[in-house]
# Entry
Amino acid sequence: MRLTCYECLAMGNAVGMIEVVLRSETIAAIQKKMYGGNVSAAFQEDPLYKWLKDKNTSDDEFLNAQQNFIYSCAGYCVATYVLGVGDRHNDNILLTPTGHLVHIDFGHILGNVEKFKGFKRETAPFVLTKEFVYVMGGKNSEGFRLFVNLCCDTFLILRKNYHGLVNLFTMMLSTGLPELRRTEDMVYLLNSLVLDMNEVDARAYFEKLINVALEAVMTRVNNAIHIFAHPDFKGQKKEMCFKEAFDMFTSVAHTFDPLKFDAKAVCKRFNHC
# Structure
C-alpha cells in the first residue's frame, strides 16, 4: 500500500529515538504555503494538488505521484480506522514530493480520540477530505474508484487475518502503553473489523465509512484551528488567533449542524485576526 514505515528505538523508560521522515511537509504547512497562511486553505480543494504539480512538472512524474497518493491514502485510511488512531489533523499528516502520505504521532489509539472542553474533536472514522479526493482526480474519477477498491480490499484482508492483529496487541499489553493495559482495551479493534458481517456487507460498510469521512466537516474545522493555533508569525497576534480558534471550536461544538454549516462564515470569522 506504499506506506512509509519509520524506525523507532526504545533506549530506556520514556527515552528513545525515532527516524525523521525526510523530504516531507505537513499538510498544514502546504495549506499555508499555497494560500499565504490564510485559514481558508483548510476549506479549499486544491492546495495539495497545486503543491504536487509544482513538485512534479512532467505528466509522468505527476501521474506517479498521484498513484502513490491514492495507494498510501487508502492504506492509512484503513490502518488508522482499524487501529483507532486519534489526534488526526493537518499537523500530524505529512506529504512527500513523490505523493506519499505519511501519518505521524500515534499517541492515541484504539478509539481514544482527543477531546476539547468535553467534546470530541474528531467525528470522522478517518481523515479523508475533499482536497485528498481532488488529488485523486475528483469523486467521479478512476483514481477515486481505485482508492475505494483499495480500501475495501485491504479491509477485507485485515478481517481475514484478525488473529494476527489480536496476537500482536496481546503481546503489547505489558509494554505500559496507557491506552493498552487490559484485554478489554482491544474490544475496539475487534469491533472495527465488524467480524459478524459477511464480505459483501463488510465492503458496503467500509464504502459507507468513506462517504461519512468525506462529508465530515469537523475534520476541516479542526484543520483550520491548527492553522490558526500554529501561525507563521509570533507575538500578540498569535495569542489573538489562538483565542479566536478556541472560541470558534467551542461555538461549533455546541451548535454544529452539518446541514446548516457555512464554511464561508467560518473563514470570515477566522480571517478577522
Q: What stands out?
A: The first strand starts at residue 8 and ends at 12.
